[in-house]
Amino acid sequence: MLHEKIAAMLNEQINKELYSAYLYLDFANYYADEGLDGFAHWYEVQAQEERDHAFMIRRYLINNGHRVVFESVAKPDKSFHSHLDPLLAGYEHEQYVTSLITEIYHEAAGKKDYRTMQFLDWFIKEQGEEETNADDMVKKYKLFGSDAKGLYALNSELAARVYTPSATGPAM
Ligand code: FEO
User: What is the CB < 6 Å shell around ligand 1?
Assistant: First the structure.
């Protein structure tokens, strides 16, 4: 059995991951409305990945005998004044999620819960990649986004992102 506090933190993380999916779909809604379908598509794929993260944590809890309980998913409440705003918010959000995963890892280490640490190793690596991707989006937009041709090319590049479910996933 998992320690009660760790199980509760993981249960809450399911909600945070589902919120992340909701938030990124909201970004996609904004870009679709702005006619930037490539940007919208990129965030739709990101939302699918976040949903996968929620499923993985749910499965880990179930595999470890924990009864998963859901809370409400918060409404995304960001308003955007430029095409750059969601990209900045996305980077900030990923840094926040990294801090949440780190807190759970810290708690697991303190309780010598090596199984959960092993499970979270995958998420630690994933967060590193997601922060890099989010930062790249900001950098690319700053380089190319203010020019119409550059924005068109960037939008086309982002449209090519393919959703691929993680082949390995975390240790269960
Ligand atoms: Fe699942 Fe991007 O954090």
Answer: 17, 20, 50, 53, 94, 97, 130
Residue with the nearest Cα to atom 1 of ligand 1? 50
- Quick one: how far is CA 158 from the chain centroid? 17
Structural domains of the chain ordered from first start: 4-70+82-159 (1.20.1260.10)
Tokens of 45: 């794929």
Closest by CA position to 43, among listed 140, 129, 150, 161: 161
Atom of ligand 1 nearest to the CA of 53: 1
* 73 token code pair: 């998913």
Closest ligand 1 atom to 94 CA: 2
Contact of 35 with 152, CB cutoff 8 Å: no
pLDDT digits (tens, 9 = 90+) for 85-128: 999 999 999 999 999 999 999 999 999 999 999 999 999 999 99
Query: pLDDT for 32-48, tens place per residue?
Result: 999 999 999 999 999 99
From the CA of 50, how far away is ligand 1's center (Å)? 5
